[in-house]
Amino acid sequence: MPETVLSVSGLDGHYGDSHVLHGVAFNVQAGEIVTLVGRNGAGKTSTLRAIMGLLPRRSGSIELRGRQLIGLPPHRIARAGIGYVPDDRGIFASLSVAENLALPPRAQAGALSDGEIDALFPRMKERWASPGTKLSGGEQQMLAIARALRTGARLLLLDEPTEGLAPVIVQRIGQIIRDLKGRGHTVLLVEQNVHFAATVADRHIVMENGRVVDTLDNADLAADPGRLDRFLGV
Amino acid sequence: MSVQILSGQLLLGLINGAFYALLSLGLAVIFGVLGIINFAHGAFYMVGAFAAWGLATYLDIGYWPALVLVPLALGLVGMGVERLMLKRLGGLDPLYGLLATFGLALVLEGTFRQVYGSSGQPYPVPDALQGGVNLGFMFLPLYRGWVVAASIVVCLATWLAIERTALGARLRAATERPDVAQALGLNVPLLVTVTFGVAVALAAFAGVMAAPVYQANPLMGSNLIIVVFAVVVIGGMGSLSGAILSGYGLGLAEGLTKVFYPPAANIVVFVIMACVLMVRPAGLFGRAS
Questions:
Q1: Which residues of chain B have pLDDT under 70?
Q2: Whole-complex ipTM
Q3: Closest alpha carbon to B24 in B289, B285, B288, B287
Q4: Which residues in chain A touch residue B189, judged by CB atoms under 8 angstroms apart?
Q5: A77, A81, B34, B99: least CB-packed within 10 angstroms?
Q6: DSSP code of A111?
Q7: Which of A78, A92, A107 sits opposite B183 (nearest CB)?
Q8: Window 93-122 of B, Cβ < 8 Å to A
Q9: Nearest CA to CA, how far is A230 from chain B (Å)?
Q10: CA B224, CA B203: separation in Å to the nearest integer?
């Protein structure tokens, strides 16, 4: 029985007056790659933000290896061992590439060394001193993932890592995510691109209107390719 | 016109500029992390001068210890103000922060005026910096030279700490995107509190340095702060190098105006502000957002 890394149950979330998450519940096991899929506005990004404590109001239960995260401020959640890559990548314009990478405090032992980061993300060194936002979109995405890994976090939350990127970069990011799985990392990612999701993930959690409406693995997807389309409605 | 008059006024301008720079730097840093305009900054500067005077008068503690103790103590007070007052205004319209700090400034000034009256309390120039040197073209009082040099060093050190160190990178990140910075594990609320404290300490440091030049006067802060706001606007809201450079530059501009057309000396900063805003609405060094 694999260890449950992240356990979300009865999660409600609000932005001001709008109630965006309704009793969201799912588990992520150690070493698993899980996607949150669904239409725009289904609550995928809000779920990640709720886990990180960035939603103005949230209630329910979010446990990281048994530790309750509801009530903790975002920096304590990050230091508990979650690496977060927001949907806009969160690269700081006023920081150089090197400063962006070195920004988060090391949360846990087992952080990727600078050498391992270099191996995963070659060519980042060449742009070391330039402002983070001068990188291309793909490079910014790599930098954001590298930055999250540098903390030693074993659980990564990636919000649409492939959005707006060229196919060759998307492939590269897929390779990096599979590499991370090989290293024993656990990844929860939001993904609009179902084909990409199917190539990297073990399991897919389907969201609609702030609720989890279905969960399926790649075998289910292969047996019934139409099952996701009902929710995504393309 | 003699070289003496010109250089004398330029020196006076540079001294005013030294205080403008120290205060506008703190204001710019606070505006960056808290998004509020700290109206109480001039009052902290005034309290700094009074604290130096009080240490000398009641406890016989001299200028040099005061230059360290007063910024430390007021920095702690500043952190308390941030934690107890300003933190609670986070997420509200910045106007509330402006009103709260304006009220704090009025309370501080009113209290000191009630206790000490509106005339200044004299504070001696420290013994080591009595007298001056003849530079040939002008006589430089040692204390004034020290004020200019110390302020340049402190401004430069603050700028370097923010722009070139790892701690400064955290501050820049928290300024640019506080939510993302916090989700990456930075304790942004603590960073904001400490930053506010350091900015208040800078104002207190300026106040101690000002005591021998201007005396300790309850109104010294409000006389200065309006010009300092103009300095920050001219430099570009949130631009640290802009705040420092325009601080000295506008001090010099005032000095020059005193030589060539004295009646305009009090308004020249605001005329420059109006002109700059017409051409560059984000200020000289500001990034248009």
A1: 1, 287-289
A2: 0.88
A3: B285
A4: 73
A5: B99
A6: P
A7: A78
A8: none
A9: 34
A10: 11
